[in-house]
Structures are given as structure tokens and as C-alpha cells.
Amino acid sequence: MKLLEHFKELSIYPKNAKELKGLILQLAIQGKLTANWRAANPISPLLGGDAEGRGGVEPASTLLERIKAEKEQLIKDKKIRKEKPLPAIAEDEKPYELPEGWEWCYLGESMLKITDGTHHSPPNVERGDFKYVTAKNIKSDGIKLSNVTYVSDEIHKEIYARCNPELGDLLYIKDGATTGVCCINNLSEEFSMLSSVALLKNPKCILNHFLLAVLTSPYYYELMRAGMSGVAITRVTLKKLKESIIPIPPLAEQKAIVETVNTLFKEVEALEKLTVERVQLKEDFITSALRELSIGDTQKEWAFLQEYFPAFMNEENNIKKLRETILQLAVQGKLTANWRQSRTLSGSTTLTNHGAEGQTAKALLANIKAEKEQLIKDKKIKKEKPLPAITADEMPYDLPEGWEWCRMRDISFSIVPNRDKPKTFTGDITWLTTRNLDEYSTKIHHKDGDNKLSREEIKEYNARLLPIGSVIMSCVGSFGFSAVLEKEYSCNQQLHCYVPLGNTNPFYLDSIIKSSKKILGDNSSATTIAYLNKTKCDSLVASLPPLAEQQAIVEKVNSLMALCDELEKQVVASKANAEMLMQSILREVFEKKPDSVFSDLSELTTAEA
């Protein structure tokens, strides 16, 4: 079948492990995992069977009669309260057809007790007499006590009189975002609970592990989530729990189901572990290869890495690492080593935008300095206090010949946005915020609901008009997000704008910003949210190549980023195909005979290893 045929492909994506476990539980509570068991163990109730059904495969109807008698005795002994009888389950209320010997019943009828913890949050402290368990402590594999609090003996006795969890009982989260998480109580001591957790006490003829399979199955999860109500916190009521309909198989088959589910879960978890290990091996390989790309012969290492793209560049995290490496290589001049060599060998001297042949970055900086002085003289920009000289610690690598270290203020001037938000937006000039920036794209990402100003509003509210060709970056929260403006914009105070001087390539400045994500973050100041002020933005250290090489770098970066875009599209398409395949398999499994649905999983696990 398709599940086993494509299991290795599906197991690449960890999400599928959860889907497979859900599928196992769904098949389990439909009786589709134990069809062969039923064929070998037909229903044959024997007189004289003991209280747990030993002596013959009793049908579930016999178990329900036994539960009814047990509850009547508990009511008589005043250990539980008598509840109003529920109506018979109509045929159209039964979600699917059950195997012979199984019965549909209300959860409330099959349990000895269903209640919840206190509805009044009591005083609780880090140390005390009795543990106080809430939804945050309930995990699928049991109660976790790392953040548990305590209540006094007096408060505990009041809560425990109504809600008395004991070892082996079921605990079910019924309030909030984690509704549906369920576990078997693994604590032998007494403890108190909050009302966000329901307590279910099962009779001996319904195994707690089988009940756990029912309560965590896709069928029951969807049933409960659909019935949640509330405003601030949505919840499942005790009434909803009690009136939910669950399947009950014979006790002997419950045991067979639990054993089968446990076996299959172990197989899936083994495959899941192999998947995690495979993903980690890929990440380790890519990390090592990209490091060699940075410190070794870039061209040679790139050729080596490309051979492994199909096998290793199918993880989004690895592609992200590749993008970051490309940007680092760009600003170190390693993407254009061959470009520089070819110009030297050929004697080529391409004219720069200043008309000077082979102009160095040092000459470019001198031209920009003169340009700035003229702008200050013409009162187009303000003269600012000099920034400190660049220290050796701020120069993390050696630069190619003809390059220079500088600060961003040395090659641009800043436009600082007004702190006040405009009160009206009636024009066509988009007012940018951090949400319009992407981590790796150089373009502005327009969103639904973007505010737009008119030129009159820009003047009225003293907003700043950002010119074409300027570079903006986020200076709050997420650093290294930037874009080059291809038309006029305005923006809020969470963005910083650089206007390049001396024909400095704005797309190269964008690469500097994107490659400086960690430096920007380290230099930020933190209050409730990290931010960079104007001085820190302008102080960012940049490696500056000659103009002609800036253009060569930008072209190379664009080409490699386009390659990354294609790799990401392939990953997205692969995930979408895997999801479609998984859904197809789910439909197939529910329609097929279940006898050998998972029969070959153990062989598959061995093959994967």
C-alpha cells in the first residue's frame, strides 16, 4: 500500500509522525487494528466468567451491565451521586459502524465518576502541604512538576472531597488552548486540581490505556473542540464530556488494542528519531561546508557544495544558512575574487560612474567627503559630530586590495522619521513600517491595510519623504531586515533611512545591513524591546569596495539569492506534495481492510537504520 511505499519520503517531515499516531489511534478505536485478533477470538460469553471477563470473550454489552451494577452500588453506598439518565443513542448519532461485540455508550455512563477541580483559584505558593495541579502541568506522558505550586492542608481537603485523583485515573484538559491533552495520573500521592482539568475514574472493565487512546484520538479531539464555548477562555463543559459518545470493545480486545497501539507507537517513534537524526546530520554537514566556503577556496568549496544540493538543500533552515553565508562572502569580497583576477589579467579598466578608471574605495570616500561638505554648505543636510575611528576589533577580516573600512555615515546621510504618527492617510505615498521588510528580499513588501499619505499630509504632519534609491532598515526588534526604495515612501520611527552618496550602490548597502544582523543586535539597547538609535545605526561598520566591484557583487548576490528562492520553492512544493500524499493515505487507510496496514513497519524501521 502507499503508506509503506512512501513512508521514507513522508518521514522526512516530523509533522507526519503526529499524523501517523493520530491515524493509529483512529484505526484502534474503530477496531481496524484488531480484525485478525477478533477472527482468532470470537465473541463467546461464558457463564461463570470472573469480574474482569476471564473465561471467555464477553461482548461489551456485558461490560456495560457490569458497570451499571457497580455504579448502583456506589450510589447506594453514597460514594457517588445518582445522575439523570441519558436517552438511548439513536442510530444517526453513531459516528461509524462498530465490529461485532462492541457498543456505543455515553462517556458518563461508562465512567464511575467525571468531575473537575476547584472553580475558585485558591491561594497557592511555591512550597506547601499538597501539590496544586493545573493545565500547565498536564502533558501527554503524565503530570510534570517542574512548575507546580502548593496549597494548604485545609484547602486541599475541601477540594479533594469532591475531586479525588488517584493513581491510574485519567486527567483531561478541558479549558483553553491545550484542551484535549490527556494523560494517566502517574502520582500515587494526593493532590488538588483546578477546574481546567477534568478527572475521569474508569471501572476495571475499561482499561485506562484504552480510554486514553479514545480520548486522544482524532475522532474525540474534533468532537470536543467543536463543542467548546466561552468568551475569554473557551472550554469543554462536564456536561459535554459526560454526553460524548465513545466506542467500547470487549475487555480482552481492549488489551489487544493497547498492546498493538503501544507497538506501533514505538515503531513510529523509532522512525521519528531517525528523521531527527537525519535532519541533524544534514544541518551539521551544511554548517561545516559553509564554514569551509567562508575560510577556504571559495570557488572550489562552492563547486563541492553544489553537488550536494539535492540531498542537503531540502531543509528551509539549511537554505537560510546558505543565504547568510552568501551575504557574508559578498561583503568580504569572496564572491568576486575571480572578477578581480580577470580584470587584472586582462588589464580591463571599466569606467566608474565618476569617470575615473579603476577608482579605489579610498578615492570614492574622498569624493563622498567632498560631496557631503557641499551638501552641508548648501544647508541640505546638517553637520554632525564626528564618529569615533574604527578600531581593530571592528575589522573582523582582511579586505581585498582597493577596499576600505568605513562607517555607514561615511557613505550616506540619514533621514530620521518623525516620531508622531500622522492622523489621516488619504494619498498614494505608502507609509512604511517594519512589516513591509523581509529578511532577505531587497524589495518592499506591500500589505493589505498599508497606510498612504498625500504630499500635503507629509507636509502637515512633518513626515519624511524618502527618495528613490535610499535604503531603509528596521531599527527595532528584528535587525538586518532592509530594502532599497524603488519609488518615494514615508515611514514610521521604527525604520532608519540611509541615502547613499558618491553613487554608492544602494543594493550593496542593503547587503551590508543584511550581513550585519548579529552586530546590529549586539549593539542594540534593550528596554521592553531592543532598538537602535540614530548614532548606532550610523556607526555600523561597512566594508567598501570600488564602485565597479559593488555592481559585480550585487549581480552575484542577486543570482545566488535567486538560486535560494528556487530551492525554497522546491522545499515548499515537496512539503505540499507530502501533505497531499499523507491525506491521500489517510483516506486510503480508512477505506481498506486493516489486516496488514502496519504489518511491515518493523521491517521499514530496520531498513531506515
Structure explained in plain terms:
- With 609 residues, the protein is an alpha+beta fold.
- It has three domains: 181 residues; 206 residues, Alpha-Beta Complex (Adenine-n6-DNA-methyltransferase TaqI, Chain A, domain 2); 185 residues, DNA methylase specificity domains (Adenine-n6-DNA-methyltransferase TaqI, Chain A, domain 2).
- It contains 22 helices and 22 strands.
- The chain has a four-stranded antiparallel β-sheet. Strands 13-19-16-17 form a four-stranded antiparallel β-sheet.
- Strand 4 and strand 5 form a beta hairpin.
- The longest helix is centred in the middle third of the chain and has 45 residues.
- It starts with a helix and ends with a helix.
- The C terminus is likely disordered.
Strand content: 5-15%
- What kind of assembly state do the chains in view correspond to? single chain
Terminal CA distance reads 21 Å
Question: What is the spatial order of strands in the main beta sheet?
Answer: 2-10-7-8
Domains, number? 3
Low-confidence residue ranges: 47-51, 349-357, 593-597, 600-609
CATH class of the largest domain: Alpha Beta
Quick rundown:
The protein is of the alpha+beta class and 609 residues long. It has three domains: 1-29 and 261-351 and 549-609; 44-249, Alpha-Beta Complex (Adenine-n6-DNA-methyltransferase TaqI, Chain A, domain 2); 361-545, DNA methylase specificity domains (Adenine-n6-DNA-methyltransferase TaqI, Chain A, domain 2, Alpha-Beta Complex). The two termini are 21 Å apart.
